[in-house]
Amino acid sequence: MMPAEDLYREELLEHYRNPQNYGKLRNADIRYRDFNPVCGDEVEVFIKSGNGIVKDVRFIGKGCAISQAAASIFTESIKGKKLFDVRQMGNDAVLGMLPVKVSHLRIKCALLAFKAVQKGIVMGGKA
Ligand code: FES
Fold first, then answer.
1. What is the model's pLDDT at position 1?
2. What is the mean pLDDT of residues 71-89?
3. Considering only CA atoms, which residue is closest to atom 2 of ligand 1?
């Protein structure tokens, strides 16, 4: 049997290999591209909102396994949520969704999609 840590790492890699919500949303009303200045990796998020709620969400991007897997996990978690609530979320809530504990150096990777979504909501004036 695999040690638990390997299982969690495998779960993360599975999101990296087969990301949820990967692609563009043509009718998105919130869109934001953000990048990690340290490595240049990037994520662009698309949200279709209605009545202040995330109706649909997608992302595209290129980068390390953590940034892309976190984008997959995070986008999946905000479907149906209030934009206002997503905007209020803290870093720890997002890091806590990941199956592995992220080292200090990789926190920016893990929060890339989250930050893009938050900035997109603010810029779009939606919450
Ligand atoms: Fe670039 Fe992780 S190394 S986002």
1. 67
2. 97
3. 109
**Substitution site in 16, 33, 42, 64 for ligand 1 pocket (most atoms within 8 Å of beta carbon):** 64
Strand partners, 36: none
- Counting Cα atoms < 13 Å in the Cβ hemisphere of 66 gives 20
Atom number in ligand 1 closest to CA 66: 2
pTM of the model: 0.93
Q: β-strands 30-35, 42-50: how paired?
A: antiparallel
Q: How many CB atoms lie within 10 A of CB 24?
A: 11
- Centre of ligand 1 to C-alpha 54, Å, is 26
Give the distance (Å) from ligand 1 centre to CA of residue 26. Answer: 26
Q: Parallel, antiparallel, or unpaired for β 53-62 and 30-35?
A: unpaired
CA–CA gap between residue 119 and residue 35 (Å, rounded): 12
